[in-house]
Amino acid sequence: MSARDPRGLRVLVTGASGTFGRAICARLDELGAQVVGLDLAPRADDPVRLLACDITDDDAVPAVVREAIDQLGGLDLLINNAGIGGPAPAELAPGAEVRRQLDINLLGTWRVTAACVDALVASGGRIVMLSSRMAVMQLPLAAAYGASKRDVDGPELDGVVDLHRQQPVEDVLPLPRVRHEPCGDRVGYDGVDE
């Protein structure tokens, strides 16, 4: 199996019943990977096997991740895709919505990653952290979402993996570098269709 050949890869995807998660799971399945997904609310028509998992539950996550890894027979790739958004303006004190977004987007990702590290170390596997444009491009009413995705993209969660022999972590962020266009004051981002 080469680094570019997904056939036979054992993959765990969080947020697997949502729009991006379903697409990721379906594509990897089409390419021959073995995929198990985690989602708070799996659907009957999900394209791969899904396990119900509340990634905000400290006790449930390790058990469900262990079940997924057992079903896969190991783990080669973790794709941290789960995330939510909602109105949480920075000018208001943090409330329940802010805590919910941070618990799912940041701490949930951390919980799942920590539960997967031993299996990933054993296989020499990889981790993909999906982030958002809003990690670097803040929008009104989205302070909690932006902060949580910025931390997923930053070195904070990479440190979880650093403790366990430096497993490769791939941050997936659509705005990796700012580039300045030669015409006028226009600023663009490499890798993003404008």
UniProtKB/TrEMBL annotation:
Family per similarity comment: Belongs to the short-chain dehydrogenases/reductases (SDR) family.
Name of protein: SDR family NAD(P)-dependent oxidoreductase
Record has Oxidoreductase as a keyword: yes
InterPro entries to which the protein is assigned, alphabetical: NAD(P)-bd_dom_sf (IPR036291), SDR_fam (IPR002347)
Any one Pfam family match given in the protein's UniProt record, by short name: adh_short
Superkingdom per UniProt: Bacteria
Protein species of origin: Micromonospora lutea
Keyword terms of this UniProt record: Oxidoreductase
